[in-house]
Amino acid sequence: MDVPTIETDRVRLRPLADADVEELLPAVYAPGIAEWWGDTSDPDHQREGFRNDGAAFAIDTADGDLAGWLCFHEETEPDYLEVSFDILVLPAFQGRGLGPAALRAAIRWFADHRGHHRFSIDPSATNARAIRAYSSVGFKPVGTLRRAERAPSGHWRDSLLMDLLIEELA
Q: What pTM does this model have?
């Protein structure tokens, strides 16, 4: 699938470029992000993660500033349609509602253009800020994924599986 450009009054989602990856990379070491990101010891691994095999958006503000990254995994099997997301908002742009705005724009596009009705995201179970942001979009907790992600310290921690049906989009 070619990654589209999606514009709203708050954000513009566009295909991620290599220059965006280089601008995003330092954020994985920043306070407020590093503790949720996982192993950051290999920058090339981080670059590939951002690229996500091409299934990734750059999140721009309405003014054109790079504010973050949104990747997706699209299940296209007709009996199991779903899109899952991961997102990073750069520290300078956090707290402005840009992450929820980007998620809403992507969800609406996948529903309208690709026929999806179900969406998921799985933040760390203790990342209260992310859980609040995703809840504001309409995501609801489904359950705990036990020891689902490795923390930067190397220990395994739980994730919270959250999902949203298109009619729940806030």
A: 0.95
Summarize pLDDT for 93-123 with one digit per residue, the tens: 999 999 999 999 999 999 999 999 999 999 9
Q: How far apart are CA 60 and CA 48, in angstroms?
A: 20
What is the C-alpha separation between 94 and 31, in angstroms, rounded?
12
CATH of residue 11's domain is: 3.40.630.30
Per-residue CA distances from 120 to 25, 107, 140, 165 (Å)? 24, 10, 9, 9
pLDDT digits (tens, 9 = 90+) for 39-78: 888 899 899 999 999 999 999 999 999 999 999 999 999 9
Half-sphere exposure of 133 (CA within 13 A, CB side): 23
Residue 163 and residue 85 in contact, taking contact as beta carbons nearer than 8 Å: no
Q: Could you say which DSSP state residue 124 is in?
A: B
What distance in Å separates the CA atoms of residue 60 and residue 93, rounded to the nearest whole number? 10
* Domains identified in the chain, total number: 1
Residue 73 domain-assigned? yes
Half-sphere exposure in the Cβ direction for 97 (13 Å, CA): 9
In-domain check, residue 139: no
Strand order in the sheet with 118-121: 6-7, 11-15, 56-61, 66-75, 82-89, 118-121, 156-165, 140-150
